[in-house]
Specification:
The complex is a heterodimer of chains A (314) and B (298). Helix content of chain A is 69%, strand content 1%. Chain A contains 13 helices and two strands; from the N terminus they run ββααααααααααααα. In chain A, α9 crosses α10. Chain A has 314 residues and is mainly α. The longest helix of chain A has 27 residues. Chain B has 298 residues and is mostly helical. Classes of the chains: A mainly alpha (314), B mainly alpha (298).
Chain lengths: 314, 298
């Protein structure tokens, strides 16, 4: 079946990738440059697939396990990794991916290089749509809460954030764990949508693609992961005529993004809305106030508590 | 004698890791450029060597020089197109490091795709006449002339680099840039040219190593860069970022552990072992074996 000229499976992969992209975007948004999302996705995928095929566990329980197991691993990992900053964290999380890949390739229970097959394909399109909608709602709510503002403060400066009452180590490990949950869920969706799992599916090139999704969409706004995942997954479909040069297009896009639009698509939209808003006020057009207020980007507010600025009347 | 033989093989392959990681370590240590395309520069060197040797018959030194120059030029192009601009405008060093890493990922993808189209995805072979290999057997341990050449190169390159950094005006300026670019500028160093030179040499080292590695392994294909890059990371983190002899020690260490592990472990676990070791080192000594702990000021 085709929707809007696209294969249905392409759309499903886009929705699955939203979770993966979010697992990269969220920590980066908070200033934690971790690259382990794909490793957690693999853990979630294999966990859910093994639980349902070998132990006849109910799919919902398996899904919960696919979120919980990577979270537990992430929590354990965050203990030693909490001390590492910047690129050391990136590299050690990459090392973790290699370790996970090695286990998947060699351990008996994962089926080795041949992988797992005949995994029940429970996942249907409406499950994915529902899951993505729920994720969008949660992401939007969180970004506009105290937690969202704390994350921005953390990204800008750990020192400033801690003077404002944000405990950096706690936030950093929480971000890491949540990233594990999101990636694990995306893994479970993937496993039960495709029905086959191989270690090759979770390679370094998927890390690169996930990073492109997160950065293309934009890391400063919750919608970034959604936009990025959809664009990056569907772009190759549209690029069919130049399929052989796909990575040249991707690579060039990545470089151009970093140079010219470091805040990504979501950032660009944010900027446009801001420009439009300031033009309107400049022209003294007095638009309907509440609408403009709602459109105003709220990402860069600095005050953590009491964003309304009414002088601490709470 | 198996152990001694594996140790020799490990030292030889580890020498290529050391040569490769030296450039990676310099560009990160001095310019904060963590070049994710470095592995593809190595592959590019091997590819240029292959393409040239297909059309003209050149001696190995000339081929090495060509491969090094072209990989160095590619690295320089990345610097001019992206890294330099990012360095100029980023607010904090950490932010700049992340953006630079992402840009280099993009360049890596481009190089990988082009190489795939050029080689059509098949493994390729450098003509074995480039380096006539002779064997020496000492007490049942075999060592080839190629292995000796690689090991010597892996000792000479770091020795020259550290002499350059320690004894010359430009070396001093480069080391100053590693601490603080603005201070280097205050003292009159042309930091932009120095950065060009550092990145060109880093790329050139990778390119030359690519030819040596392709000769040593017999064949190469367009995917050779990625595992090499991951190993390069392991090497510089084990040795300490920016430490020259650290990358030699790290390279030899990774090579030897890898070869010896084949005696005790099923082959597939090799990679996991190295990276498990890496995580361990990061936990105990995040600055690496020979690195100095970084002090962060606010």
């Amino acid at each position: 079946m085709r929707v809007l000229g696209l294969e249905q499976s392409a759309i499903a992969f886009a929705l699955i990738n939203v979770f993966l992209a979010a697992s990269y975007q969220l920590p980066i948004h908070g200033g934690v440059f971790a690259l382990s999302g794909v490793a957690f996705m693999a853990i979630g995928a294999y966990a859910s697939a093994l639980l349902t095929t070998r132990f006849d566990i109910h799919p919902i329980v398996a899904l919960a396990a696919a979120g919980a197991l990577p979270a537990a691993v992430a929590l354990l990992l965050s203990l030693p990794l909490a001390r590492l900053g910047g690129l050391y964290l990136a590299l050690s999380t990459l090392a973790f991916l290699v370790v996970v890949e090695t286990v998947l390739l060699n351990a008996g229970f994962t089926g080795g290089a041949a992988g797992l097959y005949r995994i029940p394909r429970y996942v249907e399109m409406w499950h994915l749509v529902l899951a993505v909608l729920v994720l969008a709602y949660v992401a939007r709510t969180v970004q506009r809460s105290r937690i969202g503002r704390a994350m921005v403060a953390l990204r800008e400066s750990n020192a400033v954030a801690s003077t404002l009452g944000v405990y950096p180590a706690l936030y950093r490990s929480t971000l890491f764990v949540v990233s594990g949950v999101l990636a694990g869920l995306s893994g479970a969706f993937y496993a039960h949508y495709v029905g086959v799992l191989t270690p090759q599916a979770f390679s370094f090139s998927l890390v690169v693609r996930a990073l492109v999704m997160a950065l293309l969409g934009g890391t400063s706004h919750w919608a970034g992961a959604f936009v990025g995942a959809v664009v990056v997954t569907l772009l190759p479909e549209l690029l069919r005529p130049v399929r052989e040069w796909r990575d040249v297009v991707f690579g060039g896009l990545l470089v151009a993004l970093v140079l010219f639009a470091p805040r990504g698509i979501a950032g660009a939209i944010d900027w446009l809305v801001q420009q439009a808003g300031s033009t309107l006020t400049h022209l003294q057009l007095r638009p309907y106030r509440p609408l403009l207020y709602r459109l105003r980007p709220r990402v860069r507010e600095v005050a953590l508590d009491d964003p309304s600025g009414d002088g601490g009347a709470h | 004698m198996d152990i001694a033989q594996q140790a020799i093989n490990g030292i030889a392959i580890g020498s290529t890791y050391a040569l490769f990681a030296l450039g990676l370590s310099l560009s990160w240590g001095i310019l904060a450029v963590l070049n994710m395309a470095h592995g593809h520069l190595l592959m590019w060197g091997a590819l240029v060597g292959y393409l040239v040797s297909q059309s003209v018959e050149l001696p190995l030194p000339a081929l090495l020089l060509l491969a090094a120059t072209s990989a160095g030029a590619m690295c320089l192009a990345m610097e001019w197109l992206a890294f330099k601009r990012l360095r100029g405008r980023s607010a904090s060093r950490e932010q700049m490091e992340v953006w630079t890493l992402v840009a280099s990922l993009g360049f890596g993808l481009i190089a990988l795709n082009v190489a795939e189209r050029v080689t059509l995805g098949y493994p390729r072979q450098l003509p074995s006449a480039l380096f006539p290999i002779e064997n020496f057997v000492v007490m049942d341990v075999r060592i080839t002339t190629l292995q000796i050449a690689i090991i010597l190169a892996a000792l000479a390159a770091p020795a020259l680099t550290s002499l350059f950094l320690a004894r010359t005006k430009w070396g001093l300026a480069l080391r100053t840039m590693g601490h603080n670019v603005e201070i280097a500028e205050l003292y009159g160093a042309n930091t932009s040219r120095l950065a060009d030179a550092a990145l060109f040499s880093a790329g050139a080292l990778a390119g030359a190593t690519g030819v040596l590695l392709a000769l040593y392994l017999g064949t190469f294909d367009f995917t050779m860069g990625e595992p090499m890059l991951l190993k390069g990371f392991a090497v510089i983190i084990l040795g300490g970022v920016g430490s020259i002899w650290g990358s030699v020690l790290g390279g030899l260490g990774v090579g030897v552990v890898e070869s010896l592990s084949t005696l005790f472990l099923p082959g597939g676990y090799r990679e996991g072992l190295i990276f498990g070791l890496l995580v361990l080192v990061l936990m105990i000594r995040p600055q690496g074996l020979l690195g100095r702990p970084a002090v962060e000021r606010l």
